[in-house]
Amino acid sequence: MKTFLSWLGFDSQKHSIKVEMMAGLTTFLTMSYILAVNPIILSETGMDKGAVFSATVIAAVVATLVMAFYAKMPFALASGMGLNAFFAYTLVLVMGYTWQEALAAVLVEGVFFIILTIFKVREAIVNSIPLNLRYSISVGIGLFIAFIGLKNGGIVVANEATVTGLGPWTPTSIVAICGILLGAILLTLKVRGALFFTILIMTIVGIPFGVTHLPENFTILSLPSSIEPVALKMDFTRFLSLDIDYYVVVATLLFMDLFDTIGTLIGASTGAGMLDKKTGKIPNLNKSLMADAIGTTMGALCGTSTVTTYVESTTGIVEGGRTGLTAATVALLFFLSLFFSPIFLMIPSAATTSALFLVGVMMLRQIVHIDFVDFSESMPCFTTILMMPFTASISEGIVLGLLAYVFVKVCTGRHRELSATIYILAAFFILKYIAPLL
């Protein structure tokens, strides 16, 4: 048993099995919505919904196990939100690619990611980001996931006059608000597993309110659907015909996945105090990035969209998850979901609002480390923090913040504070925004 736990980076003198497994359970419950959402989104392209469900689970299990045993870190991975919408609504429904061609683009992106990770290009990019921007990424992600939670709970809704506004009082929003208040009380009382218990309690409370839906002919066990309708169905015709537009699609997927993952790893590690005290770097960074790359490749082979490191991992990290045992627990629960999907799919988004909102509160504490005296530091940091929730994209927040950082430093004669990697990134980002105009 000790040998097995050591493979996960677990040290009995520093860590607790109960805490790590509770952290994994909390992370899984917070991100389990992907099991319901991803099949719905990808089925819009004509893909078999049941097969996509199984593919989503398998890809998440493989990627998260690589994170657990290879990187020994508490992060969980699954098909990314935003990335799946880009796959279905942009690539297939708007641009006209078949879902088989879109899967091929995801596979090419994944293989390219593996190559970049082997040569430590992604690690160099992460380590080149200035310290103040790293803190701002953590804060920005906190605001972003809090916003997602409020939106999922119906507390914040779309408003034609002001873009967003306070939503109406509904059973869903009431359950979500009660969950936030309950979670805040339990956290204040330092109850271990506060976020998990809040999700569990609000799921039960939601039943009489009609927020938690018990399916008809409810059964605990269900046989998993075959992935045969979507697995290994990639179509490389566009890639082999040297279609420039298709290459741009691959580059776009690469960019979105790269900076979503970087943002999550930096934000979660910084917020949890997991950075190396001497160097300020993320431990086992390159191995964590490799888990992400393998996950994307496996996901495409199985028949699902780009796999990425989930920002919801922060909920488990806040609960005390620090090793691969947390990730292994998430992987196990994903595997069990193949057979117990009616139970896991029953958890409403309103029940997870509390976890996302309260983790956002916790991640906000990193704002005290940002240098707000030096305007060349504070303005880019504020840009990063603000643009993540406003653009609904971690990657866009990082890009715009880093471009602002370079622009202000260069224009004020402080270019010597910038590394060569930062200049290369800035040039790439500028090209990203200019290319569609050409």
Structural category is mainly alpha
Series of secondary-structure elements, N-terminal to C-terminal:
HHHHEHHHHEEHHHHHEHHHHHHH
Q: Nearest-angstrom radius of gyration? A: 21 Å
Terminal Cα span: 59 Å
Structure, described:
This protein has about 450 residues and is mainly alpha-helical. About 65% of the residues lie in helices and about 5% in strands. It has 20 helices and four strands. A hairpin with a 3-residue loop joins strand 2 (about 155-160) and strand 3 (about 165).
What features would you highlight for this structure?
two-stranded antiparallel ribbon, mainly alpha, 20 helices, 4 strands, 438 residues, single chain
Describe the SSE topology.
Blueprint: H1 2-7, H2 17-31, H3 34-43, H4 49-71, E1 77-79, H5 83-92, H6 99-118, H7 121-128, H8 131-152, E2 156-159, E3 163-166, H9 171-188, H10 194-209, H11 237-240, H12 244-271, H13 285-302, E4 307-309, H14 313-318, H15 324-337, H16 341-344, H17 349-363, H18 375-391, H19 394-411, H20 420-434
Antiparallel strand pairs: 1-4, 2-3
Concise synopsis of the structure shown:
The protein has 438 residues and is mainly alpha-helical.
